Amino acid sequence: MPVPQSAIPAYAVGALCITGGVTGYLRTRSIPSIVAGIGVGVLYIWSAEQIKRGAPNGIEGALGASALLLVSSLPRLTKGPVPVILALASAGAGAYYGKTLYDLRNHAHVHT
């Protein structure tokens, strides 16, 4: 079972996504920015809550949100610092949750 501290990156990146989506909307009136920012941010926050409670699918949700954010950020890397920050945050979170999931699955196989 994942430890509650492993929810911290998902909370952080979720807050970053929501803040970025709202900021993008306020600056440019971009509907895709607010929809994507809030959508991915909520997925991260939901995942963090699942992880914190020890409920199923939290790690997988955070890993999926990381992949979604990374894939959507990569084509926009040349458009300024925000896509770069989002790509780096999603890559870091994805690496963390990928390793966490890998370790959990391998640990479960060792003791079963």
From TrEMBL:
Principal location listed in the UniProt entry: membrane
InterPro entries from the UniProt entry: TMEM14 (IPR005349), TMEM14_sf (IPR044890)
Pfam families reported for this sequence: Tmemb_14 (PF03647)
Location relative to the cell: Membrane
Bilayer-spanning residue ranges: 30-46
Name the UniProt record assigns to this protein: Transmembrane proteins 14C-domain-containing protein
GO CC, alphabetical: membrane
Source organism of the structure: Boletus reticuloceps
Keyword annotations from UniProtKB, A to Z: Membrane, Transmembrane, Transmembrane helix
Family of this protein: Belongs to the TMEM14 family.
